[in-house]
Write a structure and sequence with these properties.
Blueprint: H1 2-20, H2 30-57, H3 63-110
Length: 111
Amino acid sequence: MEIATVLCAALILAVGLHTIRGGRSWLESKLMIRLGDWSYAFYLVHATILYGAINLVGHATNAAEGILGALVIFVGALLTSCLLHRLVEAPAERAIRGWKDRNMARRAAAR
């Protein structure tokens, strides 16, 4: 476990130094940014979808079913997180930022 921690830290450091020096990383691709946007929603829904699928169809009885089931659950959780981000998280963030901006503008005007 300690080796994985050190390797992750080294990877983060290497990518960070590369970016500071002006290089582009595959982590800056549109796909990776979009997945990052969806990551919190994915965190919120993945376990619910996993347990819901297990309750609905039961446990896999062989490796092929397990792999197919994991793939279906992953894709379902990813699509759900995309929808949750677009329909709930992003609009809520815009509303909160708009409220904050208006509130700060009122305070600045009152001074």
